[in-house]
Amino acid sequence: MNRYIVEFKKNKEQESALLTPLIPGKIIKVDFVPLQGEIYLPVYYNISLIEGTTRKRIGKLGAWIAENYPLEDYHLRTISQNKTTLLSFKDKKRAILKSPSNNYEIITINKNDLGKRRRETLEKNGFFKGYDIKRNIVIGNYYLFRRKKKIRGLLELEPEFAHTDFLSLVVLDKLLDVLKNKKTKSIESLEGVEDIEEGKYSNFILSHYPVNRVKEAIEYIDQQGEWETFCELADKGKPILLNGPTGCGKSTMIKWYAHINNIPFYMAPTGNRETSMDDIIGSWVPADPKPIKAPGALSLAMVHNGIFYFEEIGPVDPGVLYGLHGVLDDKKLTIQSQYGFEVIEGADNFKMISSGNLDSRYTPIELSDAFLERWAQIKLIYPDKEGTIAILMSRAAGLDEKMATLITELIFDFRNILASYKKDMGLRGAVEVCQASLASKQSLRKLIEVYMLNPKSTYESDQTLYKKLMERVNKRIKG
Hints:
- This protein is of the alpha+beta class.
- The chain folds into three domains: 2-179; 201-379, Rossmann fold (3-Layer(aba) Sandwich); 385-476.
- It is built from 15 helices and 21 strands.
- The protein has helices spanning 116-124, 167-179, 201-208, 226-235, 250-261, 277-281, 297-303, 318-321, 325-330, 369-372, 385-395, 401-418, 428-437, 444-456, 464-476; strands at 2-10, 15-20, 26-32, 43-51, 54-64, 75-80, 83-89, 94-98, 103-108, 127-135, 137-147, 150-157, 240-243, 265-267, 282-285, 292-295, 307-311, 332-337, 340-345, 351-356, 376-379.
- Strands 1-2-3-4-5-6-7-8-9-10-11-12 form a twelve-stranded antiparallel barrel. A five-stranded parallel sheet has the order 14-17-20-13-21. It has a two-stranded antiparallel sheet with strand order 15-16.
- Helix 11 (385-395) crosses helix 12 (401-418), helix 12 (401-418) packs antiparallel against helix 15 (464-476) and helix 14 (444-456) packs antiparallel against helix 15 (464-476).
């Protein structure tokens, strides 16, 4: 077992929990800011990594615990080091902790069930409460000891399990003690929204966030029948994942469908390692007289019965994506807002569509089968030469076929070279070249360099890749 000491330190301003891992000189710290009077949920606490004299913020912990909330609504969400964990209660004795890689059952230790020797050893050191951590079998424990009014913790884990997954468990009892007697501020009508039915966040969205539609879009040019498949699935409201390389037309397809069908369209921030559920569902923002929950793209799409588009899901923390399972399964989303908790349900026209380049050569994170099986997946590839020529000519009105063919040949030349560098050559740069060639005073070679070569060789010091690509340009363009 690996063992980690937990200490609770208090100064004049605040109290903190310090988790000391096995790595010498490194401490994880969670700060508890004093709370006065009634509170708004969630209550957020900063997580920091202390190494020597350096302190770096590495995440946050959100707590949904209060006197006037039922136990089943108590939960702690931790976002730290690109990982999200969720600790929620089943009953007074059991909780479930979900991390990106594992689910754990947290069971309160009954001292009467402990062996005599173990119980005596623990009680000798001031043991007063503890938890077994189970994943099929017990893989760890968390003990709390009190001696001379000072509380310390001991976290024990099998070596293959990460201690950072259990930050919410480490501070659970402290937060229960701090928050359980706190009342949330009363749900009152906000200034200017008195006509909204109390307790209805969906009505708040309808009243304050107008429908967004795609007013202009580029027509998607079908390559291998994928457009017909996409339309059939989207019309039936099936969750769709478009999997294909950069610049193959994934976003163009979705926006074209939304445009021609006049469906409300909401796009989440492009997925990355820092993406959280708040980015997708919505986050709290300051307002007068009290904070409000500003809805995210998913909430808006569900309330307005439109399309939710999540671009580039590949690098997103799987723990965050786990939070989408309920929406994928039954089109239901639980929202915690200034009106309390509400379940928002997407109607017939609500659609979830995501995209990404999930090629293992370019995507370090592998999404779980449980997540992938919830989507109908369409795999896209780059169009062939004939299709590429057609796309370039459609995107650059007035472009002659000779120029479109030249740029297309260069695209295929570049892809052959870039493959060994684990890079792709999409159509965005080529489209820019074609459009600029009709009006720019720059030479065609310079346009290709600016829009196609330089973006692929940005971080080169010796320009090896740039030179290889430029050799192909010089062979195709004489003079």
